[in-house]
Amino acid sequence: MNSYPEIIKKVCLENEDFVVFTAENRAVVRDLPPILGDRFIDVGITEQNMIGMAAGMALRGRKPICHALTNFLLFRAYEFIRNDVGIPCLPVKLSGWIPGFLSDGNGPTHQSLEDVGIMRLIPEMQVFCPSDNEDMCMMLETIWNSPYPSYIRVNPRPAMIAHKEKFEIGKAEILFKGNDITFLVYGFLLEEVLKAKEIIESKGFSVGIMNMRSLNPIDEEAILDLTKNTSNIVIVEDHFHVGGLYSIVSEILTKNQKTMPIIPINMGKRWFKPGLLSEVLEYEGFTGNKIAEKVLTNI
């Protein structure tokens, strides 16, 4: 099984408790209606209704998986996610499409640069950000079988590196260890961080990378180990400065009374300028070259 459609089909055929919802976001699940029959529900452009219906089904033992563009899924339906799913802690699964920079050509109304922040504010809401299609496919069945509500940043981009570590909720994937610098990154920006690593290593530095595929819960132990094993943390994310991985790491270090240099590379307090993805990365400073330049300037 090497794609989202294949895995969701397998899971649904093996367990009749699964129900698939979409809010006119059928592209990835287009083959399911004739297979699932009345277990496939397209609510149209009514994300609030979708979450309310999914919560009702979850109360009756079903396992709903909901699909929509991330900005509409989370922001339009946030009250329903919080009240109907979060408060009773129901196992409703939220699959958000074109998150972060992956909404490249769309303006601010279609961008989701605060999704991690608002989702992790809901108690027991699990948050996952796979780095690529291979990473995502390793995660899906575990996430969908978790008894907790969850949100995943769907990422079908091809893998730039082999993932050898089995996915476990709450665990980071340690791709490389480095004594001088360790990157903490999630989502497709791992592609650019791998390029930055090569550039920085060519300058004589030892560089590590941790794929933070599970953001809530997060691998607190792995983060605290960095205070002993590396000199600088670099956090790269297509998210606002507040609420995302930078905030999470800062909270963990503060709670444990630890300090160390952190270089945050994020969108600060602004949305990004739309364009082709390559243009967005170049303009906003998230290419491998520009990430490396920022790091070398600040260490």
Task: Outline the secondary-structure elements.
Blueprint: H1 4-14, E1 18-22, H2 33-36, E2 40-42, H3 47-59, E3 63-69, H4 70-76, H5 78-86, E4 93-97, H6 115-120, E5 126-128, H7 133-144, E6 150-153, E7 173-176, E8 181-185, H8 190-201, E9 207-211, E10 214-216, H9 220-229, E11 232-236, H10 245-255, E12 262-265, H11 277-284, H12 288-298
Parallel strand pairs: 1-2, 1-3, 3-4, 4-6, 5-6, 8-9, 8-11, 11-12
Antiparallel strand pairs: 5-10, 7-9
Helix pairs in contact: 1-7, 3-5, 8-12
Question: Please, could you describe this protein's structure?
Answer:
The relative contact order is 0.12. The protein has helices at 4-14, 33-36, 47-59, 70-76, 78-86, 115-120, 133-144, 190-201, 220-229, 245-255, 277-284, 288-298, and strands at 18-22, 40-42, 63-69, 93-97, 126-128, 150-153, 173-176, 181-185, 207-211, 214-216, 232-236, 262-265. By secondary structure, it is an alpha/beta fold. Helix 1 (4-14) runs parallel beside helix 7 (133-144), helix 3 (47-59) packs parallel to helix 5 and helix 8 (190-201) crosses helix 12. The N and C termini lie far apart (42 Å). It contains twelve helices and twelve strands. Helix 2 links the parallel strand 1 (18-22) and strand 2. The strands form two sheets. It has a seven-stranded mixed sheet with strand order 2-1-3-4-6-5-10. It has a five-stranded mixed sheet with strand order 7-9-8-11-12, covered by helices on one side. It folds into two domains: 4-153, Thiamin diphosphate (ThDP)-binding fold, Pyr/PP domains (Rossmann fold, 3-Layer(aba) Sandwich), CATH 3.40.50; 173-298, Rossmann fold, CATH 3.40.50.
